[in-house]
Amino acid sequence: MRKYFFGEKASTHKNVKYLSEHLENYIHYSIDIRNTEKINSIFNKYSKDIDIVIHTAAQPSHDWAAKEPVTDFTINANGTLNLLEATRNHCKNASFIFTSTNKVYGDTPNNLPLIELEKRWEIDEKHKFFHSGIDESMSIDNSKHSVFGASKVAADIMVQEYGRYFDMNTVTFRGGCLTGKAHAGAELHGFLSYIVTCAITGKKYTIFGYKGKQVRDNIHSYDVVSAFWEFYKAPRKGEIYNIGGGRHSNISILEVIQRIEELSGHKLKYEISEKNREGDHIWYISDMTKFKKHYPDWHYKYDMDKILNEIIQHNNNSK
Question: Which residue has the higher pLDDT, 319 or 55?
């Protein structure tokens, strides 16, 4: 459905083809997670062998969600419920790992004491709270989430509830920007991959609001999966973690434009729109303290430059 959301170039077809050709034990089923019957048929077929379920399927754009709220909600909320029920009924002891989003916090992060610097917004050093990033204590209530954020809140809470109510090994990872070289970035989702593509191809990029100084933390898919692995080895019940690049790997849009030029030699053509996206964050950096405390063997492998260099190289090789 990614092709339906964002167009041909955002399709994951190439990734599926690559996995099918290069991984001996990879089996692909092209199934809509809203289709309860087909989901249950797969879980029933492999029930004795399933000890981990990693749920990353979603409608991931808050811009797109406003076009088709029902489609967005049925995928993100109902689809998640289908997978939880299938896990409970067929492999209850499996670890259920769900990729939520930082958008469950709505626009509450915009109420933090931010100061404007030359190329980014930043937390005022006079205020100690959230200086290391946003942790799981931030409220997910009383804010504008976007339609997408609201549907992910429903899924997020349900994953927690299955862990606590049904005593299952569930975890919700509230992601910042998750990326990597194979990220099929599009204008409405996957900004780091998309902005590199624009720079290399000469396509004009539009920045929506906040003077281009909005800050995002970025985490490589390798580091995300290694976090999943740590949880799988020592699962917990109904746990939540913020996951992102944190203070280790974050950047503003103006900063990333400059860094792409320095690393690739390509100058980005861009314009700044005065209108920001509804419910968008001005500054978001994940505080990973809780996860690191629970799983001290986990460490970052990628920083901002390593992520950018890999995406740039991948784009150059794809030309």
Answer: 55
What is the pLDDT averaged over residues 51-69?
A: 92
Angle between helices 191-201 and 304-318 (to 10 degrees): 50
- Report the helix count and the strand count for the chain, using DSSP H and E: 12, 12
Rounded CA separation 87/120 (Å): 43
Could you read off the pLDDT of 163-186 as tens digits, one per residue? 999 999 999 999 989 999 988 777
Q: Write the CA distances from 128 to 44, 111, 115, 131, 133, integer angstroms.
A: 50, 14, 14, 6, 10
The set of residues, in sequence order, having a beta carbon less than 8 Å from that of 136 and lying 6+ positions away, is 174, 240, 241, 242, 290
Whats the size of the chain, residue-wise?
Answer: 319
**Could you tell me the pTM of the whole model?**
0.93
Mean pLDDT value across the chain? 94
Give residue for tokens 């314009």: 271
d(CA 239, CA 137): 13
* CA dist list (Å): 271 to 188, 216, 296: 16, 19, 43
Q: What is the pLDDT of residue 201?
A: 92
Please, what's the largest Cα pairwise distance for the chain? 57
- Beta bridge partners, 115, equal 122
